[in-house]
Every structure is written in structure tokens, then in C-alpha cells.
Write a structure and sequence with these properties.
Elements (H helix, E strand, L loop, with lengths): L6 E4 L3 H11 L3 E4 L5 H6 L7 E4 L9 E3 L3 E5 L4 H6 L1 H6 L1 H7 L5 H4 L4 H7 L5 H9 L2 E6 L2 E6 L4 E3 L2 E2 L6 E8 L6 E6 L9 E6 L7 E4 L6 E2 L1 H8 L4 H5 L16 H24 L1
Helix pairs in contact: 5-8
Length: 278
């Protein structure tokens, strides 16, 4: 399908992008890599009257050592996250997951901020930042604010970023050598995950997040509590879907997703333990 007509403006800086958002209000949308927004526009599920292109704002593309964390600019492309020596050393889970996004063409165009702010519950990177306990930095007319990943995803394709705000940075706590794992089940390579699991060991906070098990990316709180109480991987995994209402769609029923979640969580926890012993 063909998108509805729109105006196109290229912003030269983050400040200019914010000014344009304030000027055009809810009729405007931010365009970065375009892999999330453009398909919605083609299906007429989104019909912004103004697109503000931020893809060439270099000030928002970086990976920096922040002491106890690694700071990643929102416009950093997936391929740069994947191949960053700093992230591979200090936040290997994120580097690994970035390498699973789409295909090489997508990874060379798509941005980490675009993936996260889209808030798709079937997307891999939101689950990774949830498990890692990341902090999202949002800029707006009133300045900047920091939002924990746990509070960032509000509903289906809804996040804490307001219509006049811009996600500018992702701050990821260093993992300190903790074990980690990312498991997902999909029908074909590069498909969205039917279910996915991101997990880190206790040294990195013990976060466990689920992909495509609710209307938002979500933490597996019952599993985290069971692991913290000393439960085995198998016993903890049995509560993977506790309190969750997974979707039923053309790819899987809710019951199948619950089964997959238990299997993948068990495997992820076993891999976390194995990596911790290395």
C-alpha cells in the first residue's frame, strides 16, 4: 500500500528536532531508520502529516564508557551496537541481541532508539534493555528526564516518550562478567520471535525479560523471585508465564506461548549458569 501524503523535514540537531515536534505537535512523527514507522504508514495504521528526519544527527550516534554503565546514543545503528568492542566486553547481551535484528541491510540502517521507542512486544532489543535494567534518557521542552526500562513501556506500541519528546540515550549497567543468555523461537530466520527470553545473572541484577508474552515487553517477575530464592532452573522456569496473558495469533496460541516460555526460560537460566562458571 501507499502511505497518506505528508511533509518531510530534515532536522540538523536534537534541539531542532525538539523544536519541530513542539511546532507540529501530535501530527508529527520522528523518522530514523524507518523500519518500524514506514510499514505502519504503508498500512495506514499511522498517518502523520509531518515526518521529522533525525537520521543524520550525529550527536545522537555514539557508544561511550560512562563509568558504571555504557551510554549508547539513540541513533546508534544496530550494526555499530553489534560490533562495539566496549559493549562486547561490558554489556555482551546487548551486542549479541543487536546482531540478531533483521538482516544486514536492516542492521546497517535501523537504530537502537527506534527499536526501543517503537515498543513492539515482539522485538528483541526492548527485552534486552529490560533484563539489563537500563535507563532511558528522554529530552523534551522541559529538559531531560531519566526513566527506568521497567517504567518505559506503557502499552501496545506505547512508551513513556511524549509527542513533543525525543529518546536521546540508553544507559546500560555494566554486567561485570555476569552470565547471560538470549533465547528465541521463530518459524524462519529473521522472523519476529514467537517467544523470546533475555536473562542476566545475579551479578548483573538477575533480570529476566520475555518477548511477545504480553502487550508490552515484560519482566518475568515470578521467575526472578524464584531464582533469587534458590530455585533450580527447571523449577523457576515453571512460573515463566505467571500473571501474564500472552496473545493468540496466526503463529501460536496462548497455551503454546506459555509452554515455549517455560522451555526457553529454563534453557536461558542454564546458559546463564554455564557462562557464569567460565
Amino acid at each position: 500500500m501507499i502511505p497518506a501524503s505528508f511533509d518531510y523535514i530534515r532536522a540538523g540537531s536534537a534541539a531542532e528536532a525538539l523544536a519541530l515536534l513542539t511546532e507540529h505537535g501530535e501530527d508529527a512523527k520522528i523518522l530514523a531508520g524507518g523500519h518500524s514507522l514506514l510499514p505502519l504508514m504503508k498500512l495506514r495504521l499511522a498517518s502523520p502529516s509531518v515526518l521529522i528526519d533525525v537520521a543524520r544527527i550525529r550527536e545522537l550516534s555514539y557508544i561511550r564508557d560512562g563509568g558504571d554503565h555504557v551510554a549508547v546514543g539513540a541513533l546508534t545503528r544496530h550494526c555499530d551496537v553489534q560490533h562495539s568492542a566496549l559493549l562486547q566486553a561490558d554489556v555482551p547481551l546487548l551486542a549479541h541481541v543487536a546482531g540478531l535484528v533483521g538482516d544486514p541491510q536492516v542492521r546497517h540502517r535501523g537504530t537502537i532508539g527506534g527499536s526501543i521507542v517503537h515498543g513492539d512486544p515482539a522485538s528483541d532489543l526492548p527485552g534486552a534493555v529490560l533484563a539489563l535494567g537500563a535507563t532511558l534518557v528522554i529530552s523534551g521542552p522541559g529538559g531531560t528526564r531519566e526513566v527506568p526500562a521497567q517504567d518505559f513501556f506503557h502499552g501496545f506500541l506505547e512508551t513513556a516518550v511524549g509527542p513533543d519528546e525525543l529518546l536521546t540515550e540508553i544507559r546500560l549497567p555494566k554486567m561485570g562478567g555476569a552470565g547471560w543468555s538470549f533465547k528465541k523461537f521463530n518459524l524462519r530466520a529473521q522472523d519476529w520471535a514467537i517467544v523470546g527470553v533475555a536473562a542476566v545473572g545475579a551479578q548483573a541484577g538477575g533480570g529476566i525479560a520475555l518477548v511477545n508474552m504480553a502487550a508490552t515487553p515484560v519482566r518475568a517477575s515470578a521467575v526472578e523471585q524464584a531464582v533469587a530464592a534458590g530455585a533450580s532452573a527447571s523449577d523457576a522456569a515453571s512460573s515463566a508465564s505467571a500473571g501474564l496473558d500472552p496473545p493468540t495469533d496466526l503463529n501460536a496460541s496462548a497455551a503454546f506461548r506459555r509452554h515455549l516460555a517455560s522451555v526457553l526460560v529454563r534453557r536461558a537460566l542454564q546458559e546463564v549458569e554455564a557462562r557464569a562458571r567460565l
